[in-house]
Design goal:
The complex is a heterotrimer.
Chain A: H1 16-19, E1 141-142, E2 148-149, H2 154-161, H3 163-170, E3 177-179, E4 185-187, H4 190-193
Antiparallel strand pairs in A: 1-2, 3-4
Chain B: H1 2-17, H2 21-47, H3 62-79, H4 81-86, H5 92-117, H6 140-167, H7 174-200, H8 213-240, H9 246-277, H10 282-289, H11 298-317, H12 319-322, H13 325-343, H14 345-352, H15 367-395, E1 399-401, E2 408-410
Antiparallel strand pairs in B: 1-2
Chain C: H1 6-10, H2 24-39, H3 43-53, H4 56-63, H5 72-90, E1 95-97, E2 107-112, H6 121-129, E3 149-154, E4 178-183, H7 192-196, E5 202-204, E6 210-212, H8 222-226, E7 233-234, E8 249-251, E9 263-264, H9 270-273, H10 280-284, E10 290-294, H11 301-308, E11 311-312, E12 324-327
Parallel strand pairs in C: 1-8, 2-12
Antiparallel strand pairs in C: 2-10, 3-4, 5-6, 7-9, 11-12
The chains are: A little secondary structure, B mainly alpha, C alpha+beta.
Chain lengths: 217, 424, 330
């Protein structure tokens, strides 16, 4: 249940507010519209489960994802019409907890009380929460340069390391677009498919195979 | 003129209805077969081709295999007219008529097999000009339908003219019939070539996509077609007292030996190419002779075909066995079996197995397919029986128009065999 | 050509698709009709035959000609007739359109083999979207159809069709040591299936989609024999399409319910793509392996793939020139 499992991590006394730093737990179900909390230990972001949405019921071009009343406009400025990031209603906005009452604890450590469902498997030897989440304002992320960005623009954060994927994503090769091939389309954010804390794709149960010809009567 | 035609038809029809017990039994048997097949087809029409063993992986099967074989028979039957003419085998018109009647019957079966194979027979008219939209000349299947029908019409025209003239005791109009006979010979070659092209033009099916396919088709046709004709000639000369010399039959057998040798040579050329180059395309040949994975059912047929053809070659090549009617007929039957497998299931099934994505579906015809095919064979045999029953007596001058008032009658039968053995 | 009067269409209430309840007698009548139709040429004779032996709706089907040759009102009448048929059959309103190809559009498709995990979401999304015949597990006359076939192959062996397995069914995919290759209609620029069709019932549209006229196909399956990609499917029996599963947004050359005895295949979801939307398989793919767009548009995703990735096509030696490209994104 550790965000970072390096043994040298030495949790300090005041970890309570830091746990809140991981408010942004984008939960899998955000994509399919229900907002139950993820059981502890479950990946924070799952693959969107397509079995829940047949093609006939695919989201219409303009409303790919359930509206999130608590957050965000589409990020149009950069030209990437992204759906809302899969932020958890339970935790968002982060600043509900991570406010003046909880000064940030910048010490790298294992989180034991909150956000225990997060397993960091994303270069965990070198990174931890505050490498991406901004310590001062938990409602935003920050780039390596220190520039803060909203969750809508999280692809900029990912793109810092994953340059080729970012390039491919921008041209529509990496990732998925829905909507109109010749008009309005939505680019899924990296985090819609990859759990930022554990980005490797999870295996799926395949749907039924075709019927063998010798069994067709 | 029209009255004459009516008399010709009624005369022929009444003759076809008269016959010995053997004749009636044979015809009744064929009618039963046709009914059986028609019943099966009605069922298929209702339920769909799901009743066959064909599936998306192997979408052509027994029907199209039989079609291909029968095109060969149709082609070879007529080409036999050339040696008959060159070697003076005897009554050239009679031999031409037998060949052409066989061709007509074979084409009837061909069209029957195509008709039962299509999913929407109610739309078959789409194949024809004016009322349909034939994809001519791009589609080889369109070509095939076209040339087969033209060939059918051509043969019907020739035979009708010859018989019509004979019936009324006139000499056939050579200005009309000779060019048509001459035309029917390249037409015979072309129907089989087109049928071969129908397969060999498909780049996605390497087993067929070989330029040797058309020559192989012709070579094998000159095995199977004459094999049938040899047996027919023996039956017919017994039944009708047709003046066909033994030498003629032996000559055909000798020519067939060349055809068999050529056919086997083409096979060897093809098999060598496949095995020596040892590409992925080899798998189709392997499927035929050895089987691949669980689908091994074809190997027995593959080897039967080869062995039967080789034995037939020996029997036709050695003068002693060629001139012995027992071994000759054994050779004919073996050859028929060999080519029937080679051109039927041995051509169609391995060409489609494994499918283009490598999947192996071991197709075997269902009882239903055999039932429908039996009906079509019945139809073809019946057509041939009835036509030959009328044609030979007419051609021999035994069934002629006896002047006004008297109507058409059979001439006093000088031939004891006539009627007794007709049509087997 | 048999020119048909629009009235013939409009007077029709209904023309049942390949009536499953057809009696043998009716079958024989239909056959004899087609024969007459062949021998004779004019609609008058066909009409007489129909009056004698068949119902008006049968006549109408016989006198219908190819969609490609129809005038605008004739197409409209056909769509109306089909909609009436479906209304009767499925008890719901099915919208059948004939949206034509747009100018300056040539559709292309690319599939990232390094992403595909073989989950078959695309296969089943396609079945639903395109009204394919569903399996009927306990029944005879089963006619299950899937336009997409996903092949499982071993990484050790690379792309080797002779070793491909379309029937894999493990608990989880991707399986260790395996990769997956979905195959569907490649929408060839030089399509062998179109070339061989004896009745011109299948053709390539201006936007590059190869389509089938289900009212004209005679079901000879020569196109399936000619297709090097195993992309075409035949309705071996009456399609099994439960009324509650009908996708009512249809195109006449695409996903409208098909009759028994005709061939069908992927059309790049013509009903969606001609309305500007992505194909169903693209939108469902959970790994974003599927890319689609207008190849004539330099800003499209498909152009980006073609310009920045090394793509390959299946069986390029056959010169079929597919507009379906495969690539390895990583």
């Amino acid at each position: 249940m550790a965000a970072a499992e390096s043994p040298q991590q030495n949790p300090t006394s005041r970890f309570e507010p830091l746990l809140r730093a991981f408010l942004v737990v984008p939960l899998a179900i955000a994509l399919v519209g229900s907002c139950q909390s993820t059981p502890a230990g479950k990946a924070a972001i799952d693959l969107p489960d397509p079995s829940h949405s047949g093609p006939v019921n695919l989201p219409p071009p303009q409303s790919g994802l359930p509206p999130d009343p608590m957050h965000g406009q589409k990020e149009e400025a950069k030209g990437y019409a992204v759906p809302k990031p899969p932020l958890s209603k339970e935790y968002w906005p982060c600043s509900d907890c991570h406010n003046e009452s909880q000064p940030p604890n910048r010490t790298r450590r294992e989180l034991k009380d909150d956000h225990t469902n997060i397993h960091l498997h994303h270069d965990e030897a070198n990174r931890w929460c505050l490498d991406c989440h901004d310590a001062e304002n938990r409602d935003v992320l920050h780039l390596a340069s220190g520039v803060t960005i909203t969750f809508d623009e999280s692809y900029r954060l990912c793109g810092q390391c994953h340059g080729t994927q970012f390039r491919d994503w921008k041209s529509g090769i990496h990732g998925k677009r829905t909507g109109m091939w010749n008009g309005d389309k939505q680019y899924l954010l990296c985090v819609h498919c990859h759990n930022p804390h554990s980005p490797h794709f999870k295996p799926l149960k395949p749907e039924a195979p075709p019927v063998r010809p010798n069994l067709i009567r | 003129m029209f009255q004459h035609f009516i008399q010709f038809v009624t005369g022929a029809a009444s003759h076809a209805l008269k016959g010995s017990r053997t004749y009636y039994t044979w015809v009744a048997f064929l009618l039963c077969l046709i009914t059986y097949g028609a019943w099966g087809y009605a069922h298929q029409y209702q339920e769909g081709l799901i009743l066959t063993g064909m599936r998306d992986q192997v979408m052509w099967g027994f029907y199209i295999g039989n079609f291909t074989f029968m095109v060969g028979v149709a082609a070879a039957a007529v080409v036999l007219v050339i040696p008959a003419y060159v070697y003076h085998w005897g009554p050239i018109y009679e031999i031409a008529i037998i060949g052409e009647l066989l061709a007509i019957s074979a084409i009837v079966m061909c069209l029957g097999f195509v008709a039962v194979d299509v999913g929407r027979p109610d739309r078959a008219f789409h194949l024809f000009p004016i009322i349909g939209s034939p994809n001519f000349p791009r589609s080889l299947l369109s070509w095939d339908v076209m040339v087969l029908n033209m060939y059918l019409i051509l043969n019907v025209a020739i035979v009708s003219h010859l018989l019509y003239s004979a019936f009324f005791g006139r000499k056939p109009n050579n200005n009309f019939v000779v060019p048509l006979v001459l035309l029917s010979i390249p037409a015979a070659v072309s129907i089989h070539t087109v049928t071969a092209f129908l397969y060999s033009g498909l780049a996605g099916r390497p087993y067929w996509n070989a330029s040797i396919l058309a020559p192989r088709f012709l070579a094998s046709a000159f095995c199977s077609g004459p094999a049938i004709i040899l047996i027919l000639l023996q039956i017919l000369r017994k039944a009708f007292g047709l003046q066909i010399k033994n030498e003629a039959i032996w000559k055909i057998a000798e020519l067939m030996a060349y055809a068999i040798a050529l056919n086997l040579f083409f096979l060897v050329a093809e098999v060598f190419k496949e095995f020596y180059s040892d590409t992925h395309h080899l798998i189709h040949t392997q499927y035929l002779y050895f089987g691949v994975g669980e689908g091994r059912g074809l190997a027995l047929y593959g080897w039967t075909s080869v062995v039967a053809t080789v034995i037939a070659l020996v029997l036709f090549l050695v003068p002693a066995t060629r001139k012995n009617f027992f071994t000759l007929n054994v050779g004919c039957v073996l050859l028929y079996i060999g080519v029937y497998i080679e051109k039927g299931i041995g051509l169609v099934i391995p060409g489609l197995t494994p499918d283009t994505l490598g999947e192996i579906y071991a197709y075997t015809p269902t009882a239903h397919e055999v039932q429908v095919a039996a009906g079509i064979f019945g139809l073809g045999f019946l057509a041939f029986t009835v036509m030959i029953k009328i044609a030979i007596p007419v051609a021999l001058g035994q069934l002629v128009y006896k002047g006004d008032g008297a109507g058409p009658v059979s001439s006093p039968d000088t031939n004891d065999a006539h009627g007794a053995h007709v049509g087997v | 050509m048999l020119t048909e009067k629009p009235e013939t269409h409009s007077c029709s209430g209904h023309a049942g698709e390949s009536s499953p309840e057809l009696t043998d007698e009716a079958a024989a009548q239909k056959l004899s009709m087609s024969r007459r139709n062949f021998m004779k040429h004019s609609a008058i004779v066909a009409g007489a035959a129909a009056a004698a032996a068949c119902s008006a709706e049968d006549l109408e089907k016989f006198t219908t000609h190819r969609l490609r040759e129809m005038t605008q009102p004739e197409v409209k009448a056909l769509l109306k007739r089909l909609e009436a048929d479906y209304k009767k059959k499925f008890k719901k309103d099915v919208d059948v359109r004939a949206t034509p190809a747009a100018e300056g559009v040539k559709f292309g498709y690319a599939l990232d083999l390094s992403r595909c995990i073989g989950c078959r979401r695309c296969v089943h999304a396609c079945v639903k979207e395109n009204n394919q015949s569903r399996p009927n597990p306990d029944g005879d006359r089963n006619n299950p159809i899937q336009w997409i076939k996903v092949l499982e192959m071993e990484k050790d062996k690379g792309i080797d069709l002779s070793d491909a397995n379309p029937y894999y069914n493990p608990e989880e995919v991707p399986r260790e040591g395996h990769f997956y290759m979905p195959v569907q209609c490649q929408q060839c620029e030089n399509p062998p299936c179109v070339k061989v069709c004896p009745v011109q019932a299948t053709w390539k549209e201006p936007d590059g989609i190869v389509v089938i006229d289900y009212e004209w196909c005679i079901g000879c399956r020569y196109c399936m024999v000619a297709c090097p990609y195993g992309a075409r499917r035949f309705n071996w029996a009456e399609p099994n399409l439960p009324a509650d599963q009908v996708n009512t947004n249809t195109h006449v050359l695409g996903n409208r319910p098909r009759p028994k005895g005709v061939v069908e295949k992927c059309t790049f979801c013509i009903q969606r793509t001609r309305a500007g939307r992505y194909p169903a398989c693209v939108e469902i793919c959970p790994v974003g392996a599927r890319k689609f767009g207008n190849m004539l548009d330099p800003k499209s995703e498909i152009r980006a793939v073609l310009e920045s990735k090394r793509v390959f096509i299946l069986k390029e030696d056959l010169n079929t020139q597919p507009k379906f490209f495969y690539f390895f994104g990583i």
